[in-house]
């Protein structure tokens, strides 16, 4: 199975497109953009700009959510981009985080998240999807109230071309229940449990078990991992480089205050402290105060840091577990040691990982 390397880009007008063009030239398989309307530029617009300016690179949200768009709207947008790009679109979706927090909401609950995923997949396949009033505000009345002679009885993307490749849906997951949902409904599961091989192994085992229990071939499920990465020969410097993104991604393991995702006892205290002091108004910022809460030892266990050789050894260990999609997240800065780390990733990490099978 082909191994993929993905990079998360700053979702800023003009900047995202420029960086996507560079990422394509640098050999990345795909580029991701955050879907967080208050903190980042509009996802679909920026994806459209990238598709128009690139030729090969895959494009995906990293990640979208099930609340701010009806599944028909989300599916229609991505299917349109799929047609315009010649099949270069993928979807990563989770229960929601900063996009919802900045509207005053928490992540979607599990049962409606499952229904949303089922509807999204149905739309992308071209199926007729039953109406579900839970996807719209309660004050919106039924179409039946109009008394039409003939009213729609279901919902589908009627314009979808049968020959168009279906947009693959990956589910970003940390806890066991979301992993199981992703394994049974998604085309892929992308684990956000850090880079500790034991945590990744446990997540893979949960996904495969859920897939088998549902009667599906476990080998047909693609497995990915969101990994914070920094290349530097000095571990403390590497830990400092990745501290901002590591704090943001580590928070998923303690979203509701209780640690999930098979974290070890040594990490639980740090994760709980992070949860108690996390500043969502500074989400994703490298200078946020909460970035100082995770130790260098935590980073060494949970991020991919060190020399290029050390990072490749860590990544190969995860590849041997079954990971084929590497979502490598680094700091956005291209100055100083962060810039040196980025250059090493592009020159030494990406081409090597892309050569793996």
From TrEMBL:
Q: Does the keyword Oxidoreductase apply?
A: yes
Name the Pfam families on file.
Answer: Bac_luciferase
Question: Ranges for the Luciferase-like domain?
Answer: 15-324
Q: Which SUPFAM superfamilies match?
A: Bacterial luciferase-like
Q: Please provide the record's keywords in A-Z order.
A: Oxidoreductase
The UniProt entry, under Gene3D superfamilies, shows:
Luciferase-like domain (3.20.20.30)
Q: Which InterPro entries match?
A: F420-G6PD/mer, Luciferase-like_dom, Luciferase-like_sf
This protein is called what? TIGR03842 family LLM class F420-dependent oxidoreductase
């Amino acid at each position: 199975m082909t191994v993929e390397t993905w990079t998360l880009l700053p979702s800023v007008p003009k900047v995202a497109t420029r960086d996507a063009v560079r990422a394509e030239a640098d050999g990345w398989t795909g580029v991701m953009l955050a879907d967080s309307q208050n903190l980042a530029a509009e996802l679909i617009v920026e994806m459209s700009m990238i598709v128009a300016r690139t030729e090969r690179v895959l494009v995906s949200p990293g990640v979208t959510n099930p609340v701010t768009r009806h599944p028909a709207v989300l599916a229609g947008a991505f299917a349109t981009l799929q047609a315009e790009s010649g099949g270069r679109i993928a979807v990563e979706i989770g229960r929601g985080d900063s996009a919802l927090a900045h509207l005053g909401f928490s992540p979607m609950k599990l049962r409606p998240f499952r229904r949303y995923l089922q509807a999204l997949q149905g739309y992308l396949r071209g199926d007729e999807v039953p109406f579900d009033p839970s996807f719209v505000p309660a004050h919106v009345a039924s179409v039946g109230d109009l008394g039409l002679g003939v009213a729609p009885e279901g919902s589908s993307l009627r314009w979808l071309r049968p020959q168009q490749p279906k947009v693959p849906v990956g589910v970003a997951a940390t806890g066991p229940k979301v992993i199981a949902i992703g394994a049974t409904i998604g085309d892929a599961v992308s684990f956000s449990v850090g880079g500790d091989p034991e945590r990744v192994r446990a997540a893979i085992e949960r996904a495969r078990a859920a897939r088998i229990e549902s009667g599906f071939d476990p080998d047909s499920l693609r497995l990915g991992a969101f990994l914070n990465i920094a290349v530097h020969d000095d571990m403390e410097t590497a830990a400092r480089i990745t501290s901002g993104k590591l704090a943001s991604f580590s928070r998923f393991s303690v979203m509701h205050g209780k640690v999930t995702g098979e974290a070890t006892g040594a990490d639980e205290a740090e994760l709980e402290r992070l949860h108690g002091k996390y500043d969502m108004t500074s989400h994703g910022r490298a200078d946020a105060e909460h970035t100082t809460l995770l130790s260098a030892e935590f980073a060494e266990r949970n991020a991919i840091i060190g020399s290029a050789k050390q990072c490749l050894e860590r990544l190969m260990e995860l590849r041997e577990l079954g990971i084929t999609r590497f979502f490598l997240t680094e700091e956005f800065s291209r100055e100083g040691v962060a810039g040196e780390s980025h250059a090493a990733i592009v020159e030494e990490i990406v081409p090597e990982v892309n050569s793996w099978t």
